[in-house]
C-alpha cells in the first residue's frame, strides 16, 4: 500500500467496458515511498478530490478493492487520509 496526494484527474471517453462509469485520478506518491514512477493513475470509487492525501492499493489488491473485481485495474484509491505524520 502507498500514500500519495491527488494532483489531477483523467477523463477517458473510450475505455474497457468494465471501467465505464469510473473516475480516474493522478496520484503523486509521497517522496519516501517512491520506488520508480513518482505518479500513477488510480481508479477512484470513494470520491477523493484534488489535494487529498490518499491510500492506494496496487496489483491484485487494487482489483479486489474495486467495485468490479475482474476489471483491468492496477491501482485503486482505497482510503482518504484524515491525519498522518511524515506525508510531506
Molecular structure report:
The chain is mostly beta strands and 88 residues long. The protein has 1 helix and 5 strands, in the order ββββαβ. The chain has one helix spanning 60-64, and strands spanning 2-10, 23-29, 39-44, 53-58, 75-80. Strands 1-2-3-5-4 form a 5-stranded mixed barrel.
Q: What does the main sheet amount to? A: 5 strands, mixed, barrel
Summed over residues and divided by their number, the pLDDT gives a mean of: 84
Question: Could you give the order of the helices and strands?
Answer: EEEEHE
Number of strand segments: 5
User: What's the shape?
Assistant: globular
Unreliable residue stretches? none
Residue fraction in strands: 35-45%
Going across the major beta sheet, what is the strand order?
1-2-3-5-4
Q: Would you tell me the structural class of the helices and strands?
A: mainly beta
Provide the helix percentage: under 10%
* Continuous helix count: 1
Give Rg in angstroms: 12 Å
The rounded distance between the terminal residues' Cα atoms is 17 Å
Layout of strands and helices, then pairs:
Blueprint: E1 2-10, E2 23-29, E3 39-44, E4 53-58, H1 60-64, E5 75-80
Parallel strand pairs: 3-5
Antiparallel strand pairs: 1-2, 1-4, 2-3, 4-5
List key phrases describing it:
mainly beta, single chain, 88 residues, five-stranded mixed β-barrel
Briefly characterize the structure.
The chain is mainly beta and 88 residues long. Helices cover 6% and strands 39% of the residues. It has 1 helix and 5 strands.
Amino acid at each position: 500500500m502507498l500514500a500519495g496526494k491527488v494532483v489531477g484527474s483523467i477523463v477517458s471517453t473510450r475505455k474497457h467496458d468494465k471501467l465505464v462509469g469510473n473516475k480516474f485520478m493522478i496520484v503523486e506518491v509521497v517522496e519516501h515511498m517512491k520506488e520508480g514512477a513518482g505518479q500513477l493513475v488510480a481508479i477512484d470509487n470513494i470520491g477523493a478530490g484534488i489535494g487529498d492525501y490518499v491510500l492506494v492499493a496496487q496489483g491484485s489488491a487494487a482489483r479486489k478493492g474495486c467495485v468490479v473485481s475482474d476489471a483491468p485495474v492496477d491501482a485503486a484509491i482505497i482510503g482518504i487520509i484524515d491525519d498522518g505524520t511524515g506525508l510531506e
